[in-house]
Design brief:
heterodimer; A: mainly alpha; Four Helix Bundle (Hemerythrin (Met), subunit A); 6 helices; about 70% helix; about 0% strand; globular; B: mainly alpha; Helix Hairpins
Chain lengths: ~170, ~110
């Protein structure tokens, strides 16, 4: 296992941890953007170039910006007086630790069953485009319809009500 | 994280840890936007699993895991747009994004 993976893993996990621990929401969005970037680099390291660049374009370019807009529109950047963690945070922490314990146990127990080592797959963006236009054309169309519906739905849901802004 | 024999297990453990972090964020924070950030982290962890299994699976040329990850990214983007639109709509209605204060179903 090369050291690049460990550097990227530490970057991703530090970004994720900082995102959920930082009090200011703007800082959280910055940290989660670092986590998205680290994950995009992990995808690149896994020889999934297309997924890596799609991750950069969609998550860093669109989702992070969208979250920043939502933070600013809802004035969530001001720190609440009652604290940033929920009243039942300990339950959430226990559930998350339990889920991680189960997942980690499953991975470590099935170590002999998972594939050991594989050659670098010779898959180019050309092949992905051919697959998207050939075998996966129906899911592609459905995703296109879903994205259109979601965009229109998001605009309608967030639109001003008729009495105007409060 | 100590070194394990198989690279795939390392990626799977990274994904599991990221999923747990996202779940902890979604369950412990008060702000609705932070819950959405936690959900995004969990979706990303699932994508990492899909890509890792595609990379180390027996038939990477079939592109199954890669396609699954790409469609999952697209659906996650739609989910983020609708989720944040809902948060903004609720904020306009109740003037708060604190989930502990959103405790009635009547508008």
């Amino acid at each position: 296992m090369n050291p690049v993976f460990y550097i990227l893993a530490v970057l991703t996990l530090a970004g994720g941890l900082a995102a959920i621990l930082l009090r200011s929401l703007v800082h959280s969005v910055l940290a989660v953007t670092a986590a998205f970037a680290g994950l995009a680099l992990v995808f690149l390291q896994l020889d999934a170039q297309f997924a890596g660049f799609a991750q950069i374009l969609i998550y860093i370019g669109a989702v992070a910006i969208l979250i920043v807009f939502a933070v600013l529109l809802t004035r969530s950047s001001e720190l609440p007086k009652s604290g940033v963690f929920s009243n039942t945070w300990i339950v959430g922490l226990v559930i998350a630790a339990g889920v991680f314990a189960v997942l980690g146990w499953a991975v470590l127990e099935s170590m002999s069953a998972v594939p050991q080592q594989a050659a670098v797959p010779a898959v180019t963006v050309h092949d992905i485009g051919n697959a998207l236009m050939g075998r996966y054309v129906l899911p592609l169309e459905i995703v296109a319809l879903l994205l259109t519906a979601a965009t229109i739905g998001a605009v309608i849901v967030a639109m001003h009500e008729k009495e105007g802004p409060k | 994280m100590t070194g394990f024999a198989t690279p795939l297990a390392n990626y799977l453990l990274l994904a599991a840890l990221l999923f747990a972090i996202g779940l902890a964020g979604a369950l412990t924070r008060r702000n609705a936007i932070m819950v959405l950030i936690g959900i995004e982290l969990m979706l990303n962890a699932a994508n990492l699993n899909l890509i890792a299994f595609w990379r180390y699976g027996p038939h990477p040329e079939a592109l199954t895991g890669m396609m699954f990850a790409i469609f999952s990214i697209a659906v996650a983007a739609a989910e983020a747009a609708v989720g944040l639109g809902l948060v903004i709509a609720i904020y306009r209605h109740t003037n708060t994004t604190d989930l502990d204060k959103m405790n009635r179903m009547k508008g």
